[in-house]
Design brief:
Blueprint lengths: L5 H10 L7 H13 L2 H17 L1 E2 L6 E2 L5 H4 L4 E8 L2 H10 L4 E5 L17 H9 L5 E4 L5 H14 L5 E4 L15 H9 L2 E2 L1
Parallel strand pairs: 3-4, 3-5, 5-6
Antiparallel strand pairs: 1-2, 6-7
């Protein structure tokens, strides 16, 4: 049986570490990168390098940004009194693509998951409470994923915000329990935002 070169073996091993990519998919991707012209492969490598060097978390909402704050936080046309809480930047992007929410966001960068050793202190909950405490926020929408951990995280946050003069709502449950926002179609997300209810 022919041995793969060390470079190809390493590329396959690195690709196989990506979420949802098994060994066979990693091999297909590696051979694809070997088949494309050099400039296309190098553009792919440069895109990875640029993301790692230039993208950081927004200092306000923890969305992905290439400067101190993200484009959403810098947009003065957005409703500054409504804050939507999501678990990950990809959840924010799903809501933005639905095109029905015009307020601000706060990205938790995860959810409370005690069995995985993730507690509130590892999320961006303290900066969230600081934002609400600073004033100006009238409504906080809990848009955590409808899972046991997502609901537990939303409950924890709603308890922390209970002493502040804000209305706490949650997405309507057209989004089924156990589903992930990233994979929910935009019509369901639009209905969920429009039909949100008091938490």
């Amino acid at each position: 049986m022919a041995q793969l070169s060390e470079s190809v073996t390493e590329l396959i091993a690195q690709l196989a570490k990506l979420p949802g990519i098994g060994r066979k998919s990693a091999e297909r991707l590696a051979y694809h990168l070997l088949r494309v012209n050099k400039s296309e492969a190098m553009a792919f490598a440069d895109a990875i390098r640029n993301v790692r060097e230039n993208v950081r978390y927004c200092s306000v909402c923890f969305n992905l940004a290439e400067s101190e704050t993200c484009a959403i936080c810098e947009d003065s046309r957005r409703d500054q009194s409504t804050l939507c809480i999501v678990e990950q930047p990809r959840d924010l992007m799903s809501l933005e693509q639905a095109g029905v929410f015009g307020g601000l966001y706060h990205v938790l960068l995860g959810r409370i998951a005690p069995l995985e050793g993730i507690g509130p202190e590892q999320l961006t909950i303290d900066p969230l409470v600081d934002r609400v405490r600073a004033g100006g926020i009238k409504e906080v929408i809990m848009a955590t994923n409808p899972t046991v951990e997502g609901d537990g995280t939303a409950l924890h946050i709603s308890n922390l915000l209970g002493n502040y003069d804000v209305t706490i709502t949650r997405l309507a449950r057209g989004i089924t329990t156990g589903s992930i926002l990233e994979f929910t179609n935009k019509e369901i997300l639009a209905d969920a935002i429009a039909g949100r209810q008091k938490y």
